[in-house]
Amino acid sequence: MIRPLAPTAVVVDYGGTLTRSASLAHRPHGGHLLTVLADHGITLPEEARFDYDQALPLHQQLANARAIGELIARVLAVHHIDCALDPRRLAEEVFDQAGDVPVDAQAARTLAQLQDEGFDVVVVTNTCRTQEQRAKTLAGAGITARLVASSQLGVAKPNTAFYTHVLHLISGDPGRVLWVGDDLIRDVAGPRIHGMHAVYVHPDGPHGPGAALAVRAGAHATIAHLRDLPDLLAAPRR
Questions:
Q1: Cα distances (Å, whole numbers) of residue 103 to 9, 36, 38, 119, 192
Q2: What is the Cα–Cα distance from 153 to 75, expressed in whole angstroms?
Q3: Mind listing the pLDDT tens digit for each residue in 190-229?
């Protein structure tokens, strides 16, 4: 039997932990850019759209608020497309056009349960979307937890500055903080290096092949869904 954890704060990753659908379905691809530019009376040639889509994955990995705007500006310049609009604003419109990955309803209820039980809950996300856009998605799911977004912070997981910022926000002992997420590097190894506990989320759960890797990365346990987390926790002692 897994020993219960007794954290005072729970940090929960967004993509793949609070959400269950594939983020690729909501990526800001060239079709969305085509639509946004058309709304402003600007034509995006097929070759420009292709170049944008080819470079998009790399820019998304940067997970900062400038990345997609800079990509749009570069594509427009390379293809000699006259556009006086602010690329950063265009990027926000592209994200709005794409829509955000929806929060899983059961995961949202679990966060509410944790807050009701007295845990300090923080949601973290690596994203190029503005903090306001992601916060709107959380609010739409009824989530009131604080949000730390890489786009606002300027650094992303697994950068040390991201973890230290979260710890400063919580103002707690790292040993009383539990980090929950679906990435072994960003959500398990990274938090463990900074003194926090970690629980790995994977659809195969504790009996899947990923569980052994999670243990080696330092995870306290592996769960199949966020709804399984409360069973691992003892009530917080303040």
A1: 21, 25, 30, 20, 26
A2: 26
A3: 999 999 999 999 999 999 989 999 999 999 999 999 999 9
Per-position DSSP letters for 158-206, written without gaps between them: TSHHHHHHHHHHHTS-GGGEEEEES-IIIIIIHHHHTT-EEEEE-TTGG
Coil, helix or strand at residue 12: strand
pTM score: 0.94
Helix (H, G, I), strand (E, B) or coil at 131: helix
Helices marked H in the chain: 30-39, 46-62, 67-78, 87-98, 105-116, 131-140, 150-153, 160-170, 190-193, 210-217
If pLDDT is split at 50, 70 and 90, which confidence band does 20 have? confident
Q: What letters, b where the CB count within 10 A reaches 16 and e where it falls short, cover 187-208? A: bbbbbbebebbbbbbbeebbee
- CATH dotted code for 9-21+101-232: 3.40.50.1000
Which residues, including other chains, have CB under 8 Å from residue 80's CB and lie 6 or more apart? none
